[in-house]
Amino acid sequence: MKISEVMTREVQTIQPDQPVQEAASFMLTADAGSIPVTDGERLVGMITDRDIAVRGIAKGHGPDTPVRELMTNDIICARIDQDIEEVATKMSQAQVRRLPVIDEQDRLCGIVSLGDLARETSDDSAQQALEGVVQPGGEHRQ
C-alpha cells in the first residue's frame, strides 16, 4: 500500500515570513504540534511547538519573529509514491510522529501521522513507527 492512500491531504501551512505567533495560534486551534512551512506549494521547512517554546524563547525571540528564523530547514519527508512500510521505518528512525508528504517537485501533497498508519492499515506499520518514536534520546528534528 502506498502512503498516498492513508495520508491526510488537506494540510494547513504557514509561510516563512509569517510571525511565529500565527503558527502557534494554528497549533493551539488544531491541537497540533507542528505545521509545514511552504513557499507557494513547495515545502521549505517545519515549525514545531518546541521550536517556538524552547528555541525561540531561549534565544529571546518574540511573537513577531518570522517563522523562517525558528523553523527546521533540514526536514525528513515521505515521497507520495513510497510504500507505507518504508515510511513507517523512516518515522521510526527519525523518531517523529508525523511526516510531510511531497511529490517529485518537493510540493507538499499531504501529511502522514502515526494515527493515519494505525487507522488505515492492518499490518504492523504503526507499531514499527511507534517503536522508534518512544525510544529515548536523539536530537530533536521536527
UniProtKB/TrEMBL annotation:
Limits of the CBS domain: 7-65, 71-127
Domain of life of the source: Bacteria
Native species: Sphingomonas hankyongi
Keyword check for Repeat: no
Keywords associated with the record: CBS domain
Protein name: CBS domain-containing protein
UniProt entry tagged with the keyword Nucleus: no
Taxonomic lineage of the native organism: Bacteria, Pseudomonadati, Pseudomonadota, Alphaproteobacteria, Sphingomonadales
